[in-house]
Amino acid sequence: MKRLIAVAAFVLAAALSAPALAQAPNASSITVDAAWARATPGGAKTGVVYLTLANHSADADRLVGASTPVAEKAQLHTEFEANGVMKMRPLAAIEIKPHETTALKPGAMHLMLIGLKQLLKEGENFPLTLEFERTGKMVVPIKVTKLGAMNMGGMDHDMPGMGKP
Amino acid sequence: MTDRTYRGKWLLLYFGYTYCPDACPTTLNAIAGALGKLGATADKLQALFITLDPRRDTPKVMADYVKAFGHGIVGLTGSPDEIAAVAKEYHVYVAAHLEQGASYSVDHSSLIYLVDPKGRFTKLLSGGLPPERIAQQLHQLIDQSS
């Protein structure tokens, strides 16, 4: 799994020229990695973004908001299953502890895009602005992977090496 | 359209809503993947995605939505009363969770229901299964019975 993520991150870096990826205006202590969205089916008015936040400083920071031109709003969400029932709830903030990473991933925390203005198509990129309490705003490119993807490489359960016999 | 429309076929039912960004599209994708692995057995089965959010999921929205997943999955919506009746029939847990303004999410059971060709509920699968596990379960059920 780790290896897949690393390969995916490399591909993104090559495609998007990575230096812009993790730079906040004020010598950021936060870096953003593995930032992706799932392609959306026709008719869908919502989308989802996953990413991994790393805090390189000795101070905790909090992700407090996000926005993107492709949707009316972007909300911090968590999703969880309780007794077979899937629930989704908005979060006011997502904390990133000092020297730790926080992953937003399928079946857990994510950024929900509400009121999509366009379909998210596999292979495209769109900008997302993240707002942190300490670090301020940073813009990250989000790569759109295939419909049903479970990680950034666009791998779903069908792909070799993902436990298929 | 009633539960008799597809009598004679196995039915795979999944309840959700198109505003659901994570669990619903990944489960539908897993169902589509499973159907792709079934070969000829897939002809004996009809997969249905039934919305629990009929207010936002119009027939057109549902049709566009399921088309992206392929494999003949049919999207169904209806009046709020009709949807409530179907959800009750299958003991699907559903509760709208109001958020700021007019937006809401829908808490719902993420389960796959299998109904045999005579219309009898037969088996429940977790919505989180990978396609090969779903395909394996479908093969077992359908091939054993024929």
Record the SSE blueprint.
The complex is a heterodimer of chains A (165) and B (146).
Chain A: H1 2-16, E1 30-38, E2 46-55, E3 61-67, E4 71-82, E5 85-90, E6 94-96, E7 101-103, E8 110-116, E9 125-132, E10 136-145
Parallel strand pairs in A: 1-10
Antiparallel strand pairs in A: 1-2, 2-7, 2-8, 3-6, 3-9, 4-5, 4-8, 9-10
Chain B: E1 10-16, H1 23-37, E2 45-51, H2 59-67, E3 74-76, H3 80-89, E4 94-98, E5 104-109, E6 111-115, E7 121-126, H4 131-145
Parallel strand pairs in B: 1-2, 2-3
Antiparallel strand pairs in B: 1-6, 4-5, 6-7
Helix pairs in contact in B: 1-4
Helical stretch count of chain B? 4
User: What quaternary form is this?
Assistant: heterodimer
Q: Report the sheet-strand fraction of chain A.
A: over 45%
Largest interface: which pair?
A-B, 35 and 41 residues
Low-confidence region ranges of chain A: 1-26, 157-165
Kindly name the structural category of chain A: mainly beta
End-to-end CA span of chain B: 26 Å
Radius of gyration of chain B: 15 Å
Provide a quick synopsis of the model.
By secondary structure, chain A is mainly β. Helices cover 9% and strands 45% of the residues of chain A. Chain A is globular.
Overall description:
The complex is a heterodimer of chains A (165) and B (146). Chain A has 165 residues and is mainly β. Chain A is built from one helix and ten strands; from the N terminus they run αββββββββββ. Chain B has one domain: Glutaredoxin. Chain B contains four helices and seven strands; from the N terminus they run E-H-E-H-E-H-E-E-E-E-H. The longest helix of chain B has 15 residues, at 23-37. Chain A binds chain B through residues 38, 40-48, 79, 81, 84-90, 106-107, 110, 112-114, 147-148, 150, 156-158, 162-165, and chain B through 18-23, 25-26, 28-30, 32-33, 56, 60-69, 93, 97, 99-100, 103, 105, 107-111, 126-128, 130-132.
